[in-house]
Amino acid sequence: MAETLDKPAKQEEQEESNSRLGDVVKIVLLGWAMAILTANYLGVFKQSLDPTYPASILSGTAASFGLAVGGNRKKKEEPTIKEQQTTAKPK
Q1: Taking the model in full, what pTM does it have?
Q2: Is the pLDDT assigned to residue 2 strictly greater than 70?
Q3: Domain limits, the chain
């Protein structure tokens, strides 16, 4: 009976350690992507590097933490087209 009580506690502890490891990996990826993008924009690399991949990693990782990169823009209101009533008289 004592073993059955210890299993959920051990499982919760392992899930928490996995969660911490996942957070560490996300933070490392976030730092790597920011470093690559910054180095590219500063001209550290001799050849121009395509920033698309690090930028997508950066936005995806930031989104997993609940941050919205560039998503705070308001949507433009679409103009409404009003129908005009025809006042032409039939012949």
Answers
A1: 0.58
A2: no
A3: 2-64
